[in-house]
Design a protein that fits this description.
Blueprint: H1 2-19, E1 37-43, H2 45-48, H3 58-68, E2 73-79, H4 85-90, H5 92-96, E3 102-106, H6 109-114, H7 118-134, E4 138-142, H8 152-169, E5 172-174, H9 197-220
Parallel strand pairs: 1-2, 1-3, 3-4, 4-5
């Protein structure tokens, strides 16, 4: 019964991710001063912070955490609700206009729900990363998982995408963006699927070691 309930919650979770309204553009808040380091958080509604105030989204919480640690950093929320990997690829040149030193990439859940060919998902993510790497931008890849009732062959193929690309490209890799948050009612908003402020704090705590690794890598990188 527990396993069935868990799977059903994930189906609803993915459905809401897919159904979220697609925004035509991302509004980037003005920074009070030029930061020494720019991190751009790219993704879907999980990055955009659907259902919470802007200051409670993970990019805002991450920026505060990094600043509290003494880092002069700006974290830009470039999340777009409902976006697929094809949408992310289509706007990657816009992301580059933000001049990021680091990109945190969280995308793909909406592709999985639609049953999009994992080969296309894999190719899109690879092309996104290659475009970023061409500009010597450090990438933190956040993994996503599909539920098994989508079919064992499809699900296994999809779930391999992130680890395979991370290994192939030598990326900083967070295996599951929602680790410790997914399916936990106490860490999600009323819909039971999108993180609430407490849930985003868990995500930031999980993500922080990978971001610190990226900061160290960005410090070592020679930018053009």
């Amino acid at each position: 019964m527990y396993r069935t309930g868990l799977l059903m919650m994930w189906v609803v979770f993915l459905g809401l991710l897919w159904g979220c309204r697609q925004e035509e553009q991302v509004t980037v808040p003005a920074a009070p001063a030029q930061a020494a380091l720019t991190i751009v958080a790219v993704g879907d509604s999980l990055t955009a912070g659907l259902g919470v105030a802007e200051e409670e989204s993970y990019p805002a919480l991450l920026e505060q955490q990094l600043r509290d640690g003494g880092l002069d950093v700006r974290v830009i929320n470039a999340g777009v609700s409902g976006e697929t990997t094809s949408g992310t690829l289509a706007r990657i040149d816009w992301v580059l206009t933000l001049q990021p030193d680091i990109v945190i990439l969280e995308t793909g859940a909406n592709d999985g729900l639609r049953g999009i060919d994992p080969g296309l998902v894999r190719a899109n993510i690879r092309r996104i990363i290659e475009r970023l790497e061409k500009e010597r931008i450090v990438v933190v890849l956040a993994g996503m998982r599909m539920v098994w009732n989508l079919g064992p062959v499809y699900t296994a193929d999809f779930n391999r995408i992130y680890a395979e690309i991370a290994k192939e490209k030598g990326l900083i890799y967070m295996p599951f963006f929602l680790e410790g948050v997914a399916t936990n009612p106490a860490l999600n908003i009323e819909d039971g699927i999108h993180p609430n402020p407490q849930g985003y704090r868990v995500i930031v705590a999980n993500l922080l070691p990978y971001v610190n690794e990226a900061v160290a890598a960005a410090d070592r990188a020679e930018r053009p």
